TrEMBL record:
Source lineage: Eukaryota, Viridiplantae, Streptophyta, Embryophyta, Tracheophyta
One Pfam family cited in the UniProt record for this chain: ADH_zinc_N
Cofactor(s) this protein requires: Zn(2+)
Taxonomic source organism: Iris pallida
GO terms for MF: cinnamyl-alcohol dehydrogenase activity; zinc ion binding
Signal peptide start-end: none
Domain of life: Eukaryota
Enzyme class: oxidoreductase
Keyword Transferase belongs to the record: no
Enzyme Commission number(s) from the entry: 1.1.1.195
Pathway: Aromatic compound metabolism; phenylpropanoid biosynthesis
Family that this chain belongs to: Belongs to the zinc-containing alcohol dehydrogenase family.
GO BP terms: lignin biosynthetic process
Name this polypeptide is given: cinnamyl-alcohol dehydrogenase
CDD domains on file: CAD1
Length: 359
């Protein structure tokens, strides 16, 4: 069998990897393929820490392979481009999100819905076309096909802009697709974490009325005063919940763990939509009656396609939408993941890769 480009010309790379399902990350030397004709190579400046990185390093979804270098909220500077690359040049700011490849010919790929391709190649823990493993953004540099790289707007800060690449597009795309971006609609956001706080910001920019739904009143002041939410509902307060029943056009649910759906379905108006974007490891219980009598819809959404990711990031630049971030050094990652599991971050950790990833 012919050797892959990576086997022939492997380029040294350095990152932090999990070695097993304990999910503890430590320094890791590996290699990446050479920059091919259609490829863009990027020096990574910042990488966000998504809750999916935790699900993955701990094998909570059951298909993790090790060593694994996580990270799919990647922003950096182009260091090399292949001869056929058109939209980028050395020195440009560029970004990579959840995927680095697909079949490029199925119905979804040809419609710009690459995140739904059955052969999608995620940014890490997947096998690339040439048989090599994909490694993510907790690393010094990355190479990807131009089609899967977005132009990062000059006016956006690279650190607080990084989380747009997963958290941002994951909430932007369903708001658009399910018609929850129309001014005057009433949206609920469940789980005020990385995804949730960006859902509030995008929905407000669309002119939607936003209510944050949270288990405790702890985040109320901040949700309203700094994130711009219109209202706040404490899901443990049954009186408050009952009074709000039947008042939401849609709810975006970003919760990462098991939780009851009945109270959320009750909050919806008839014909309302509950859109799941959180990815709990175990199935949730779905009550059917509210779906029948109120013709309510429960749906899901996976990140977003490449064209829409570019549209989202340009929209974010135009409307000054960035994540609220805590920038951390690479060697803080294990502590950061522990804190993220406790909800102890406002609202996204971002690794300062360029300054702290010493080889
Ligand atoms: N659909 C997609 O394409 C996609 C993309 C990115 C992330 N995700 C998933 O979305 C989820 C959220 O990701 P994130 O990075 O925003 O995580 P996060 O940890 O920043 O936010 C999760 C929020 O859920 C809350 N929460 C946790 N357990 C809860 C419970 N039992 N009841 C109520 N609230 C609870 C937390 O307090 C936190 O506010 C994860 O499961 C992640 O894997 C999905
Ligand atoms: Zn993610
Ligand atoms: Zn495809």
């Amino acid at each position: 069998m012919a050797k892959s480009p990576q086997e022939e010309h492997p380029q040294k790379a350095f990152g932090w990897a999990a070695r097993d399902s304990a999910g503890i990350l430590s320094p890791f030397n590996f290699s990446r393929r050479n920059t091919g004709p259609k490829d863009v190579s990027i020096k990574i400046m910042y990488c966000g820490v998504c809750h999916s990185d935790i699900h993955f390093v701990r094998n909570e979804w059951g298909f993790s392979e090790y060593p694994m270098v996580p990270g799919h909220e990647i922003v950096g500077i182009v260091i090399e481009v292949g001869s056929e690359v058109k939209k980028m040049k050395v020195g440009d700011k560029a970004a990579i999100g959840c995927m680095v490849g697909g079949c490029d010919k199925c119905d979804d790929c040809t419609k710009g819905l690459e995140s739904y391709c059955r052969d999608t190649i995620l940014t890490y823990n997947f096998i690339y076309h040439d048989g090599t493993r994909t490694y993510g953004g907790y690393s010094d540099w990355i190479v990807a096909e131009e089609h899967y790289v977005v132009k990062f707007p000059d006016t956006l800060p690279m650190d607080s802009g990084a989380p747009l690449l997963c958290a941002g597009i994951t909430v932007y795309s369903p708001l658009k697709y399910y018609g929850l971006d129309e001014p005057g609609k009433h949206l609920g956001v469940v789980g005020l974490g990385g995804l949730g706080h960006l859902a509030v910001k995008f929905a407000k920019a669309f002119g939607v009325k936003v209510t944050v739904i949270s288990t405790s009143p702890r985040k109320e002041k901040e949700a309203i005063e700094s994130l711009g939410a219109d209202a706040f509902l404490v899901s443990r307060d049954l009186g408050q919940m009952k009074a709000a029943n039947g008042t939401f056009d849609g709810i975006i649910d970003t919760v990462s763990a098991q939780h009851p759906l009945q109270p959320l379905l009750d909050l919806l108006k008839n014909h309302g939509k509950l859109v799941m974007v959180g990815a709990p490891e175990k199935p949730l219980e779905l009550p059917i009656f509210p779906l029948l009598v109120g013709r309510k819809l429960v749906a899901g959404s996976a990140t977003g396609g490449m064209q829409e990711t570019q549209e989202m990031i340009d929209f974010a630049a135009e409307h000054n939408i960035t994540a609220d971030v805590e920038v951390i050094p690479m060697n803080y990652i294990n502590t950061a993941m522990e804190r993220l599991l406790k909800g102890d971050v406002k609202y996204r950790f971002v690794i300062d890769v360029a300054n702290t990833m010493a080889a």
